[in-house]
Design brief:
- The complex is a heterodimer of chains A (350) and B (129).
- Chain A has 350 residues and is α/β, with parallel strands linked by helices.
- Helices cover 31% and strands 23% of the residues of chain A.
- Chain A has eleven helices and 14 strands.
- Chain A starts with a strand and ends in an 8-residue tail after the last helix.
- With 129 residues, chain B is mainly beta.
- In chain B, strands 6-5-4-7-8 form a five-stranded antiparallel sheet. In chain B, strands 2-1-3 form a three-stranded antiparallel sheet.
- In chain B, a hairpin with a 5-residue loop joins β1 and β2.
- The two termini of chain B are 30 Å apart.
- Classes of the chains: A alpha/beta (350), B mainly beta (129).
- Chains A and B meet through α3 and α4 of A and α2, β7 and β8 of B.
- The structure holds zinc ion (ZN) (2 copies).
- Chain B: InterPro entries: ChsH2_C, ChsH2_Znr, NA-bd_OB-fold, Thioester_dehydratase-like.
- Chain B: Pfam families: OB_ChsH2_C, zf-ChsH2.
- Chain B: It comes from Methanospirillum hungatei JF-1 (strain ATCC 27890 / DSM 864 / NBRC 100397 / JF-1).
């Protein structure tokens, strides 16, 4: 059955505290942190971007399992911060894991759900027999305009899932999506920062789609929230996923292991996939995982996943790559000046 | 650097592909097409290095130009790969963290770019293991 053959996550080492960002803008950091449910966010090193994060995540997935790179028939990378406007991130990932040249590749964009869209495409290719393995990456070096609300959470990180048919560590029982044209958040061509519809981002956007896709999934599978061991929801902040979970009837115990946002921030296309990686880091055979992503614009992809015995077998070596909690623990806190330099906000003469 | 010149060495830079002389067992990175010891008897094949090694020596660069200006201060190190060949690389770590003999591993990083509208070059750097 189609499923996850291996997975890997990557988070850059640098962090800035939400309080430090608030200090620069004369805002109340403690209040903002508590309001968002986010205390720190990850930022890239000077020489890191969506391509390097995608490669590191994909290599982590390759390290956990013996996979012949020649059997990888597709690489898809979802992001809203591809370094090139024209020239795919996916080809560099393919080259860096040795999967080129006999493969197809493309980049995806769908705000924060481009990574789960890549998982769905990969599932289609695998199920139809077109490829043996397909790599789906969700990664971002998220941009928030200095002083804008998004700046407190826009973070860097990503995860990769290798999708295939034979002996998956987790079977994907079903996926379904809920999509509409909703102008809650956008970035125009050639503009460095996105804009958002303020309060409009909640009810008609995040909640409508996350709840919509999740309810469809529960109905289709004939399941109830208590049938799942874990649940992962897109996490633009620490509050929305908790609210969505309680609206659907999931408990805090079910969502806590996959709630990476608190000390990571919103990694956009990486967000729900890093959350899923954190759950796979601790999952046992038989555990059932519910996941729903969200991308502004807007859409949600829902997944029903069951962990198999393979996760504990000789075929798979979870310890061959760092867990999300290990990646979060290996950190260096910086101040706003260093953050500005890292994010390219210091303008140099060319 | 020209786009074509970089692209020709892309596999070497991305995946640490070097060469090995099967006659005497010596490894080469950057790759060599000719073994200086075995000369005409040498048989050279491609070899992908594991990407682990240790610091042989290093220096701390405090002032630099172009692509490296924003990276200062940074560590430039001579690294001996476990297979036994040496290369010079940017070592990504705090400058007070590095020491001779420090175990390191490869990472994938941006090496530079040709201005804000030119090509971006990627490849291998090292971090503490
Ligand atoms: Zn978003
Ligand atoms: Zn030789």
């Amino acid at each position: 059955m189609v499923g996850i053959i291996s997975y890997g996550a990557y988070i850059p080492r640098y962090r800035i505290k939400v309080e430090e960002i608030a200090r620069v803008w004369g805002a109340n950091g403690t209040e903002i942190s508590r309001g968002l449910g986010v205390f720190e966010k990850a930022l890239p090193d000077m020489d890191e971007d969506t391509i390097t994060i995608s490669v590191e995540a994909a290599r982590a997935a390759m390290a956990r399992r013996v996979i012949n790179p020649a059997d990888i028939g597709a690489v898809y990378v979802g992001s809203e911060s591809h370094p090139y406007a024209v020239k795919p991130t996916a080809v560099t990932v393919g080259e860096a894991i040795g999967a080129t040249p006999v493969m197809t590749a493309a980049d995806y964009e769908f705000a924060c759900k481009a990574g789960t869209a890549a998982i769905q495409t990969s599932m289609g290719l695998v199920k139809s027999g077109m490829v043996t393995y397909s790599v789906a990456v969700g990664a971002d070096v998220a941009q928030g305009e200095p002083g804008d609300a998004l700046e407190y959470t826009a973070a860097a990180g990503g995860a990769a899932m290798i999708i295939g048919n034979d002996d998956p560590i987790a079977e994907i029982n079903h996926t379904c999506s809920f999509t509409t044209d909703t102008p809650d958040f956008w970035r125009r061509e050639n503009k460095p920062y996105p804009r958002h519809g303020g309060r409009f981002t909640g009810e008609p956007a995040y909640f409508k789609h996350v709840i919509g896709a999740s309810k469809m999934m529960l109905e289709k599978m004939g399941t109830k929230p208590s049938d799942y061991t874990y649940a992962v929801f897109h996490q633009p902040n620490g509050k929305f996923p908790v609210q969505a979970a309680s609206m659907l009837g999931f408990t805090m115990e079910q969502i806590k292991p996959g709630l990476a946002v608190t000390y990571l921030g919103n990694t956009y296309s990486g967000a729900s996939m890093v959350g899923l990686s954190a759950v796979l880091d601790i999952a046992k055979p038989g555990d059932r995982i519910f996941m729903t992503s969200y991308g502004s614009g807007s859409g949600s992809d829902s997944f029903d996943i069951t962990v198999t015995d393979v996760i504990n077998s000789d075929l798979f070596n979870r310890d061959a790559a760092p867990s999300v909690s290990a990646l979060l623990a290996d950190k260096k806190i910086v101040d706003y000046a260093v953050y500005a330099k890292h994010k390219g906000k210091v303008v140099m003469m060319e | 650097m020209s786009v074509a010149r970089f692209w020709r060495k892309q596999q070497n830079r991305y995946n640490l592909i070097g060469t090995r002389c099967t006659t005497c067992g010596k490894y080469f990175y950057p790759p060599r097409g000719f073994c200086p010891d075995c000369r005409r008897e040498g048989k050279i094949v491609d070899h992908q290095f594991k990407g682990t090694g240790k610091v042989v020596t290093y220096s701390i660069i405090r002032s630099s130009s172009g692509n490296f200006k924003l990276l200062t201060p940074y560590v430039l190190a001579i690294i001996e790969l476990d297979e036994g060949t040496r290369l010079t690389s940017h070592l990504v770590c705090d400058i007070d963290q590095v020491y001779i003999g420090m175990p390191v591993r490869r990472v994938f990083r941006k090496l530079g770019e040709d201005g804000s509208s030119g090509a971006i070059f990627y490849g291998t750097k090292f971090v503490p293991a």
